[in-house]
Design brief:
Structural class: alpha+beta
Order of helices and strands: HHEHEHEEEEHEHEEH
CATH architecture of the largest domain: 2-Layer Sandwich
Radius of gyration: 20 Å
Protein name: LicD/FKTN/FKRP nucleotidyltransferase domain-containing protein
Pfam family, one: LicD
Strand content: 15-25%
GO biological process, one term: glycoprotein metabolic process
Domain LicD/FKTN/FKRP nucleotidyltransferase: 61-98
Number of helices: 7
Shape: globular
CATH class of the largest domain: Alpha Beta
Helix content: 40-55%
């Protein structure tokens, strides 16, 4: 009887591993497209991203936009005072109804960058411009329904919010050689966002651990 129970446990474990492998290597790549890019930024991509972030931050500062460094860029500012080597893009947040954003975007576009209210690109780099709607005690992410994205990604974006106390009056950190605005309680915000990966300074994206033969833009001979 004990042996039968053990066999059942082993069978369940094997089935769970098969399911996990299917989710990891088949389902997630099909809905996120995160597997088909390199894990680490090239030197050129890193340089382009630094230039792009400096232009955006400079224009936001010049036009008095209430912005803050966010997501992976904020984590990079805390850990490296720069860009995380395996971060694929930049992240800058601001309030959706800020009246100064339009002028800042015009200034950004006049400086060799292609930018709208959602994304800015320069060379091989891109920065997500994340808009937030202000409420009494929270900021909720503004994510238009017309954006073409995976269902899981859309749902997660639409449900995201930040307690106002985390942003506060903002504070300053050094990032890519300049001073940038970050949330007042940036450590608390990062721990809230990255409950597990915040504690580990290693590549955490799926694409960093996918066998090269599964990527569409490079081969195992590279």
């Amino acid at each position: 009887m004990i042996r039968i129970k053990h066999r059942r446990c082993y069978l369940v474990l094997v089935l769970l591993l098969i399911l996990l492998a299917w989710v990891h290597f088949k389902l997630l790549p099909s809905i996120t497209d995160q597997y088909n890019t390199d894990c680490y930024l090239s030197e050129q991509s890193k340089k382009d991203l630094e230039i792009l972030l400096k232009i955006i931050i400079s224009s936001f500062e010049k036009n008095k936009v209430f912005y803050w460094l966010d997501y992976g860029s904020l984590l990079g500012a805390v850990r490296y005072h720069g860009i995380i080597p395996w971060d694929g893009d930049g992240d800058v947040s601001f309030l959706k109804d800020d009246p100064n954003v339009s002028e800042a975007l015009r200034d950004i576009n006049n400086r060799g960058v292609s930018a709208n209210t959602m994304i800015a690109t320069y060379g091989s780099a891109s920065v997500d411009l994340v808009r937030w709607t202000e409420h009494e005690n929270t900021y909720t992410k503004y994510y238009p329904s017309w954006v073409k994205d995976g269902l899981i990604t859309k749902i997660s974006h639409k449900l995201e919010y930040i307690p106002k106390e985390f942003i506060g009056k903002r504070t300053i950190l050094e990032f890519v050689g300049i001073q940038v605005a970050v949330p007042e309680k940036y450590i608390g915000l990062l721990k809230r966002r990255y409950r597990l990966s915040y504690w580990f300074s290693v590549p955490f994206k799926w694409k960093c651990y996918v066998p090269c033969f599964m990527k569409t833009d490079q081969s195992c001979d590279d």
